[in-house]
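TICKET: design request
STATUS: open
ATTACHED STRUCTURE:
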């Protein structure tokens, strides 16, 4: 028996089928950034971050991979994620199949993935020499695949670069099969460089009736150019100008359109600096830097951004979670230090660190919440009588009441990212002068030093840059770290000697004022390893004047502690007088020497600065040149997890002139975000000050690191 299909039902069925095949794109109100994080073990994997505006991104899943690389790849690592929203409403992701720790830069395949929700993915690997042995059996590199829909063929086109023996990197294309599980056509060359030079990292966008192919000029300029064509699959004409807005080498361009605007964002990986740069354009020809508007709590490598709907964003947050310290994106910068706002789910509190000028009776937090979160009430509130209750609504619409605490505290002492603080008191100015490492640069890649001054140890004035390696130092231009300084009165005039780390060597510069400018001596003071020392680095100087003899000493070393008397000129020493004083296996770096009540104190940092257990220990000596005696309990300062304080180390010590009153100046991970930043916490640090006290025998009483800081001195 045959059943005849009702014509109206047939029409409805056909309409539904067409709709399913050409699903209308949802309204996009947010953005998904897919990226990987580095070349090391575990770093070549897919990560996600979300943004509501395309500028302020927050990592999902605590910046851990959302897909296990070894579960989908042949080699064990994946890079260069690109996600496309398909014409059918599904999502298509392609990845480079490469594990640099074992493979170097050689690979032969890619991974093709498909999903309906950006969370659950099916995957298939494509090894080019196996699929196309005749044409590409000798391929050495298959890099940075991307996907675009071809309206002419109604198929998904995958394009990527390949390198064959003896040739150049060439951008090819091939069509995926219907299931997006394999390539069904033999790769063809997509772009022909007019000089036959290498091109990688292709990225295509359709704009004003033309296809714009952005690419990296691999090995010849290492920048971003583009080629334009009327056709998706060929006849691209290169525009011979670089589009990146930096002189640094870049790669991995990704371009996306901002929701509901005519503006495009071109971003790229400044890979030699471990940074990302965002630029903006309306015509894809002229780009301007907008880095000051971009904020990320992670450090991406070559990734892409996909506009997504608010519902998709909420689903991703529910699936992977977001660190609760990122629920609050921004606050009122006129009244609040936003970097240190802290939310504690367990205690049900939100801490607002106020500026000294803020009026407690009229605090308007102006909470800007992450996608899917809401908080009330709004407007100014009276905090003069204590905490104020706020109701926070989660993406799943559950509610929780938080006590919001507003308070003016003094830690961090310097606002912003600084580390390795050195402090002196200047008789000339009657002020304390603080000299830190300028932090916040990936891989400790800062190149300049600043100074700060204060009369009371709580209100600090930024005195600006005092030494810039790129301008003021001839023998290196990299890694400005861990300075120290000393004031000397020579022939009735004050002189200031500033010892600093640069390029893993120790230099010295001189000034007539503690706030500089400082003039470099023209050569490194320490550029050698002491006899018998095989490991470590020549970094972290400390300078000390023995109050008993007036003799000056220089100390330095990572992995070892070297000490030597300085000559009278303060810029040289006799190498034959050098001694190695390394106290024990806990010594890492960051020596600090001071004298109190007949005892010489030697302090140092234990563990790696990226370790939450970075901390300070100490020893005694009867001489500035040792030997050192380690007391039974020699901990000076360590983390306080209950306060969200971690990585407390690399300190200096200051005595208030004329008093037995002492303070320790140290750095910690930025609070509260540092502990969730992984290795990046080691270069997102902030300077704090707490009181240093001693028992009757002169032993240092362990310091409890604080949020409040000190009240200041008179």
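STATUS: resolved
RESOLUTION: sequence designed for all positions
ATTACHED SEQUENCE:
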């Amino acid at each position: 028996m045959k059943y005849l299909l009702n014509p109206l039902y047939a029409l409805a069925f056909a309409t539904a089928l067409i709709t399913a095949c050409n699903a209308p794109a949802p309204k996009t109100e947010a953005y998904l950034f897919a990226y990987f994080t580095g070349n090391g073990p575990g770093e070549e994997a897919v990560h996600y971050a979300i943004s509501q505006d395309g500028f302020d991104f927050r990592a999902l899943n605590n910046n851990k991979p959302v897909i296990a690389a070894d579960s989908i790849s042949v080699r064990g690592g994946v890079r260069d994620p690109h996600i496309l929203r398909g014409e059918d409403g599904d999502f298509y992701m392609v990845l480079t199949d490469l594990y640099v720790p074992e493979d170097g830069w050689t690979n032969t395949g890619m991974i093709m993935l498909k999903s309906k929700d950006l969370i659950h993915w099916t995957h298939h690997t494509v090894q080019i020499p196996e699929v196309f042995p005749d044409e590409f059996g000798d391929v050495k590199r298959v890099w940075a695949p991307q996907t675009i829909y071809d309206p002419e063929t109604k198929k998904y086109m995958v394009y990527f670069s390949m390198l064959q023996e003896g040739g150049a990197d060439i951008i090819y294309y091939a069509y995926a099969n219907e299931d997006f599980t394999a390539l069904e056509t033999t790769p063809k060359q997509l772009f022909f460089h007019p000089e036959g030079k290498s091109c990688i990292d292709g990225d295509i966008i359709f704009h004003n009736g033309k296809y714009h192919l952005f690419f990296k000029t691999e090995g010849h300029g290492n920048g971003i150019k583009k080629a334009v064509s009327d056709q998706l699959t060929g006849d691209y004409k290169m525009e011979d100008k670089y589009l990146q807005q930096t002189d640094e080498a870049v790669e991995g361009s990704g371009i996306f359109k901002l929701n509901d605007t005519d503006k495009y964002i071109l971003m790229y990986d400044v890979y030699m600096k471990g940074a990302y740069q965002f630029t903006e354009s309306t015509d894809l020809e002229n780009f301007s830097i907008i880095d000051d508007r971009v904020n990320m709590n992670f450090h991406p490598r070559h990734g892409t951004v996909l506009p997504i709907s608010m519902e998709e964003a909420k689903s991703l947050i529910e699936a992977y979670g977001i660190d609760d310290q990122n629920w609050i994106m921004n606050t009122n910068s006129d009244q609040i230090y936003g970097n240190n706002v802290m939310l504690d789910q367990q205690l049900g509190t939100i801490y607002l660190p106020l500026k000294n000028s803020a009026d407690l009776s009229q605090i308007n937090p102006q909470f800007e919440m992450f996608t899917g979160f809401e908080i009330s009430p709004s407007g100014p509130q009276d905090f003069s009588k204590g905490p104020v209750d706020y109701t926070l609504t989660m993406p799943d619409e559950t509610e929780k009441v938080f006590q919001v605490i507003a308070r003016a505290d003094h830690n961090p002492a310097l606002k912003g990212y600084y580390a390795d603080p050195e402090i002196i008191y200047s008789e000339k100015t009657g002020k304390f002068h603080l000299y830190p490492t300028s932090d916040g640069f990936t891989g400790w890649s800062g190149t300049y030093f600043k100074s700060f001054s204060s009369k009371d140890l709580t209100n600090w004035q930024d005195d600006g840059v005092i030494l810039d390696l790129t301008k003021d130092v001839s023998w290196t231009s990299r890694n400005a770290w861990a300075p120290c300084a000393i004031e000397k009165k020579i022939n009735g005039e004050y002189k200031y000697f500033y010892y600093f780390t640069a390029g893993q060597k120790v230099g010295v510069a001189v000034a007539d004022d503690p706030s500089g400018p400082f003039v470099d001596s023209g050569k490194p003071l320490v550029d050698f390893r002491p006899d018998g020392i095989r490991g470590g680095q020549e970094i972290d100087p400390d300078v000390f004047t023995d109050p008993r003899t007036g003799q000056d000493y220089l100390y330095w070393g990572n992995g070892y502690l070297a000490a030597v008397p300085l000559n009278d000129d303060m810029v040289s020493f006799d190498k034959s007088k050098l001694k190695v004083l390394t106290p024990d296996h806990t010594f890492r770096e960051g020596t600090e020497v001071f004298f109190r009540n007949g005892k010489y104190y030697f302090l140092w940092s234990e563990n790696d600065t990226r370790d939450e257990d970075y901390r300070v220990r100490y020893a005694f000596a009867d001489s500035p040149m040792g030997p050192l005696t380690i007391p039974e309990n020699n901990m000076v300062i360590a983390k306080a997890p209950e306060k969200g304080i971690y990585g407390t180390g690399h300190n200096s010590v200051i005595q208030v002139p004329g008093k037995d009153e002492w303070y320790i100046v140290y750095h910690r991970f930025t609070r509260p975000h540092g502990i969730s930043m992984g290795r990046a916490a080691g270069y997102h640090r902030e300077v704090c000050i707490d009181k240093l006290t001693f028992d009757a025998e002169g032993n240092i009483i362990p310091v409890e690191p604080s949020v409040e800081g000190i009240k200041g001195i008179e």
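CLOSING REMARK: The first helix runs from residue 7 to 21. Helices lie at 7-21, 69-72, 100-103, 128-131, 133-136, 310-320, 469-472.
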